[in-house]
Amino acid sequence: MRPFELTAPETVDTAVSAPGTFLAGGTTLVDLMKLDVLTPESVQDINSLPLRGIETSGELRIGALERMADVAEHPGVHPVISRALLLSASQQLRNMASIGGNLLQRTRCTYFRDTAMPCNRREPGSGCSAIDGANRMHAILGTSDSCVATHASDLAVALVALDAEVRLVGESGERTVALTDFYRRPGETPEVEHELRDGELISEVVVPELDFAANSTYVKVRDRQSYEFALTSAAAALDVRDGVVADVRLAAGGVATVPWRLSAVEDALRGGPATTEAFEAAAERAVEDAKPLAHNGFKVSLLKRTIVRALLELTEGSGQ
């Protein structure tokens, strides 16, 4: 790790007006600094800033500095969010990692973390080693000729499914961005991963009211049961009335360069029967634009099965 200057601003205004990389839980930043993937000259410890709090009446509001463990265990947090957090990491990491930091975590692509290998996210124009390399864990959706790295956050998948927004604060004031618009697909500029401007902070996550969010879940398929990133995942909230899908929210993780909203699958499900056969038919829409690589073609069928499993989890045994 290279030398850096550490400061601890006491106000949000001070933090956003000073140069430096922000440090909250540090569970991603410190690792990348140790690897020399990130080499900031100045780091701001923002843990004393007033960016905490969880409100569950009406819309759900979560302060950016809330810890993952606290949010997961908080009464009134939607099951899909709680489950995504509990499946994200070890208890020790959940105790440290912040909500804002989780949403901004960098890809777990091994080539991004290996400074000896070309990586367009780390060094624009150097190339993407994963396209012709070991790409079993990589994306099949939202990719480009410049990058095929998957987005790492489980929480972001759940929040995208629920139409969440992030509140951002910077020197020019506050603004709100839908999470589906916040993340950027790699295109020709994979080093630009989101819409956060220089000096801006995520201050809060806001999830609008959804009357059927209580009937929601997060299914994560991975190589081992504990502390592993997703091969595929599905966040689902389902409203079934008299055996018919009245409404649904779906998003996928582990398969795309950004948290992937499954709008086409939602459209195929609404108004149809809540049956295994209907779920399987709708899940086909999830992979219409898939571009599998040499080692991750299995994700096409696995994603479909993951979606169906999530939907069945919300219907079987519920009397719906």
UniProtKB/TrEMBL annotation:
Protein name stated in the entry: Xanthine dehydrogenase family protein subunit M
Any single Pfam family the record assigns to this protein: FAD_binding_5
Domain FAD-binding PCMH-type: 1-212
Keyword Membrane: no
Keyword tags: Oxidoreductase
Origin species: Saccharopolyspora halophila
Record-linked SUPFAM superfamilies: CO dehydrogenase flavoprotein C-terminal domain-like, FAD-binding/transporter-associated domain-like
Domain of life: Bacteria
InterPro entries per the UniProt record, alphabetical: CO_DH_flav_C, CO_DH_flav_C_dom_sf, Diverse_Substr_Oxidored, FAD-bd_PCMH, FAD-bd_PCMH-like_sf, FAD-bd_PCMH_sub1, FAD-bd_PCMH_sub2, Mopterin_DH_FAD-bd
SMART domains: CO_deh_flav_C
